[in-house]
Transmembrane ascorbate-dependent reductase CYB561 (Sphaeramia orbicularis), 504 residues
Amino acid sequence: MDDSGPYTRRSALPWLVGASQMVGVASVVLTGVWMGHFRGGFAWDGSAQEFNLHPLCMVLGLVFLQGDAILVYRVFRNEAKRNVKLLHGIVHLLALIISIVGFVAVFDFHRSAKIPDMYSLHSWCGMATLLLFSLQWVMGLLFFLFPVASAWLRAAYLPVHVFGGVVLLVMAIGCSLLGITEKLLFSIMPTYSSFTSEGVLANVLGLLLVGFGVVMVYIITKEEFRRPPNPEEEALTVHFKTLTEGGAPPTP
Amino acid sequence: MDDSGPYTRRSALPWLVGASQMVGVASVVLTGVWMGHFRGGFAWDGSAQEFNLHPLCMVLGLVFLQGDAILVYRVFRNEAKRNVKLLHGIVHLLALIISIVGFVAVFDFHRSAKIPDMYSLHSWCGMATLLLFSLQWVMGLLFFLFPVASAWLRAAYLPVHVFGGVVLLVMAIGCSLLGITEKLLFSIMPTYSSFTSEGVLANVLGLLLVGFGVVMVYIITKEEFRRPPNPEEEALTVHFKTLTEGGAPPTP
């Protein structure tokens, strides 16, 4: 958002990034504690312990790492854009791989336990998010890392890519909250309303994920935190062109 | 977001607003059909029919009307800011009143049916959203309609108000999806996985709400759709000052 007040200073960035990382790591840890301590730990054998990998992978991959992949543009504001772009793509690839493992875990568990797939709102939203996230990653790779598209197309796609990234992060968080609610009602419906520790822990996890989303979107959309324009960046298109054409890139 | 591509034209605004209204109205209608047809209709007697008012009020008030209250700044871009500001406050007030009716409905039903309150993630997120929404409305009234705050404070609060508004709209949609999931698992858990019409209808409602959110946030944050700066607006502070001081406002 560009309506930044005149009283916010850029020095808030490190504190906000620190807060986002604390909340993000706490979310991943809490998911691990929930599945590890309350739900019997992890395995890869089609059992409920294999299902337990699903929440952990989704919170780690599709929420935390997806957020951090976007954040690299704000944290490394003054590094060479080429490196930041590569890091953005690599962290997103890691997020994608971990998310796919999380998806395989739940489908594999469903097959073993003879539970139908894809009937719930959580599954519909989650599948849409993962498919759009994969599409966004491939498009980003083609348009920006190996620019096969023309400058015109790249310029037209950039705002869609940026807006889509924020939407996907928020959707991933929304899907996580749906998953938390589903898991609690499937597992502890009779005791959930008596404020058992598992229910409270999972609710707190939900609030942490909302907090992670709010801080991340604030950092990402705040005008002062954006990368300053750099005339050198114009030359980078040519730089990457040499990569796609097989030539050696010049020394930066 | 200010990273608008050079190829998006402002003429897209009416189409996007039209799409948002179609999806928004469809969401309200679908909620009404779900509660009216599948869940036995509406009443105000502490029964399950009183609960049924809760989803309808929340989708109508906290989602659809909250979104439209924000949208007035984009739809009436060239009207006098005073009028647009008043309309923004009035539609938000309507949203607030309808949301409070929705909250009373569910607490009243819980009391009659002896169901505990405030234990689920949906209730935590929903309560946080309504409280923050009420706070935001009161702050907006004090800061912008009856400016008791200094120009310095108003300028500092404006970006928080704008960012907070978008966050609250997205939170309201997220809470609705949690509510849909809760309601389905409480009501039709044994048949949800066999793709019954009620389950599919509620899932489609969830997707429509996501679509409403995406289109709304796109319109709200797109730089070209913002209100153009207007030197006349400076004078409006004085104009409203006269309201708070009891003097008659000058004719616009």
User: Anything to note?
Assistant: Chain B has one domain: 12-242. Confidence is low (pLDDT under 50) at residues 1-7, 235-252 of chain B.
